Amino acid sequence: MKKIQKRTKIVATLGPASAEKEVLTRLIAKGVDVCRLNFSHGSQEDHLKVINTIKEINQEHPFHVAILADLQGPKIRIGKMKEGGAFLVNGSKIEMTTQELIGDENKIYITYENFPNDVKQDEIILLDDGKLQLRVLSTNHKDTVMCEVVHGGILTSRKGVNLPNTKVSIPSLTEEDLDNLNFALDHGADWIAMSFVRSAEDIKQCKEIIAAKGSHAKIIAKVEKPEAIENIDAIIEATDAVMVARGDLGVEMPMEEVPGLQKIIVQKCRNLSKPVIIATQMLESMITTPRPTRAEVNDVANSVLDGADAVMLSGETSVGEFPEIVIETMAKIITHVESTSYPYYIAKKNTPSETTIIPDAICGSSIFLAEKTKASAIAVMTASGYTAFEISSFRPDANIYVFTGNTNLLNQLSLVWGVSTFIYEKYESTDGTIQDVNDLLKKIQLVEPGQIVINTASTPLHEKGKTNTIRVSVVN
Question: DSSP string spanning 176-188?
Fold first, then answer.
């Protein structure tokens, strides 16, 4: 089964609508590059079935689909409410308590134990994605906070709580997250998404756990809190990739700031060669209808034009009625933008360190040569993946083909813009290998005689050192 070719990748959340092997195989062929497992829902047993299905599909087809385990993080929720929910009236007073009970119009339970200690008078509490708003009147610093209803409505069980003004003291990785993290690492997850990241320290803690496990997994920092925006440079520096999670970000911050922040974060990530995903409500209306709104089409197209590595689907593919049509639609938008109006070779600021100055110069030069010679492909030899991330970040108008003996990279790089991966384990001589790689690309009809290929590699090849060699080849 052949996969649709595009440069911007699609991350699809799996669930009841997409977890069956036949359905998932078709979704991948139609454009899914990364499968997201949302650990906010479903049991580990459910997730393991899906992981095994993805691995089977990768073995049976020439796909290299990555597995992304998305941890719930310190998500604060209200507890159970009375049947049918409670109607909170504007101006009324309501108690929020850390003592478990069935909530009603007078009292509701919140799952966040330190809540009475962390909140202060006049701070805002948002419930159910900001649909309801409360204001803190007082706290006993023990178990109860008295609030006034600013914007009321019906509140039902287990709705999310956002505290945009409050410095919360919950750790970024909860006990449940640590359990799910170990499970995901044990079963070969390629990417781990950390929710509600607030500082670079959060990332470092998770990296230590991954290193101790000896896992190849890389970290995606989900940007969805004001503290993350305050610390954005340090977070991007510390993480391996970023997800602009616009749902909670648009609740915790003024929503009119989010489009500008999206563009700024994408550029910052490209400057540091870190993949960036745009997420939340991209084709939300397609959960229940087979056609998107025009605004949604614009949103996907603009995210592609911003230079994102990937665009993400949530409910549209996990519980939606039309998962295959959703993927077709998103792929159609991406390929149209990329063939008509994409700003290839987008400028970026490069700040090489002492240890990467040579590979960075080689990557920059390969981009310059690809643009000047109108090369059809850049063929990259890599053991660590560094060169692939770096070359992709320039967004060249040349296909990026990555050859590696590191099997972990085959799936992991599926998140990275423009990259296609191939296993390659012959390490004779640099010249011989470059010729071999170009012949292989010609054989599988990815390049044609007369086209130009830019090759990057390390010399001597067998030492698998840092990239230090570049060659311009014309296909025989």
Answer: HHHHHHHHHHHTT
Q: Which residues are marked as active site?
A: 36, 77, 222, 280
The whole-chain average pLDDT of the chain stands at 95
In tens, the pLDDT along 302-353 reads: 999 999 999 999 999 999 999 999 999 999 999 999 999 999 999 898 877 8
pLDDT number for residue 199: 95
Element (H, E) at 289: none
Q: What is the pTM of this model?
A: 0.94
- Of the options 3.30.420.10, 2.40.33.10, 3.40.309.10, 3.30.300.30, the CATH number for the domain spanning 86-162: 2.40.33.10
Residues of the chain with CATH 3.40.1380.20: 356-475
**How much is the pLDDT for 462?**
65
Question: Position of tokens 């499970």?
Answer: 183
DSSP annotation string for 394-411: T--SSEEEEEES-HHHHH
Rounded CA gap, 230 and 220, in Å?
18
Rounded-to-integer distance, Cα 394 and Cα 344, Å: 8
Half-sphere exposure in the Cβ direction for 308 (13 Å, CA): 25
| pLDDT, tens digit, 9 for 90 and up, residues 19-30 | 999 999 999 999
